[in-house]
């Protein structure tokens, strides 16, 4: 295999074939890019991470002052988690991913941000199902059942309508969102990334559960297509 393209890992998972690969993009002067694929779908690329970082910054920007205990749903290449840890107020970070291989990539140093996350004593990588934990009585931390968090940052499905697994759908209902809100502190924050434009029906669901809801479109450069792309960040405050 050439140095310009390398498959770093391949796993068969209950969600499909998972691949981590590294390649150099000639169009961008040989820039090294890491990509994650699930089946034929691209889950993440290190070339595009502005929105993943914005998820952490916009979500945590809505938190009240003080020490924050934070959950990140979906580890990916680690950009949301690292951006969260850049906030000094973050006392602890629990990152939950249902794909054990993704956690192993970080622990083994296969991806660029892995060493930074593993070395930070505030950060714990957990192999679990975020959505199952969200609707459970015990919540997100099996070591401390019933623990409350100041923020939950979610980046797993493509959007509330375009899901990686049909089973996730129950989360994006009023009942599912109320279960999530039960694991937040008094003025806790839920922030969600979506690849779709703002969804008025989902905004109405959020407004039924949370006291304050905002939505932002985040633009970022796409050098491969020589254009700008955009994604959506929802921020909901329990109040």
- CATH top level assignment of the largest domain: Alpha Beta
What series of H and E elements makes up the topology?
EEEEHEHEHHEHEHEHEE
In angstroms, what is the radius of gyration?
Answer: 17 Å
Figure out the total of helices. 7
Please describe the biggest sheet, giving its number of strands, its sense, and whether it closes into a barrel. Answer: 7 strands, mixed
Structural class: alpha/beta
What is the overall shape?
globular
Give the low-confidence spans: none
Percent of sequence in beta strands: 35-45%
How many domains is the backbone divided into? 2
Strand order of the largest sheet: 7-6-5-8-9-11-10
Please count the beta strands (DSSP E, at least 2 residues each). Answer: 11
Helix content: 10-25%
What is the fold-level CATH name, i.e. the topology of the largest domain?
A: Rossmann fold
What kind of assembly state do the chains in view correspond to?
A: single chain
How does this structure look, described?
By secondary structure, this protein is an alpha/beta fold. The protein is built from seven helices and eleven strands. The protein has helices at residues 50-61, 79-85, 100-107, 114-119, 130-134, 174-181, 200-209; strands spanning 5-13, 16-25, 31-38, 41-45, 68-73, 90-97, 123-127, 149-154, 184-194, 212-222, 227-237. A hairpin with a 2-residue loop joins strand 1 and strand 2 (16-25). Helix 1 (50-61) packs parallel to helix 2 (79-85) and helix 6 (174-181) packs across helix 7. The protein has two domains: 5-44, no CATH class; 48-237, Rossmann fold. The model has no long low-confidence stretch (mean pLDDT 95). It is globular and about 50 Å long. The strands form two sheets. A seven-stranded mixed beta sheet has the order 7-6-5-8-9-11-10. Strands 1-2-3-4 form a four-stranded antiparallel beta sheet, with no helix packed on it. Helix content is 23%, strand content 38%.
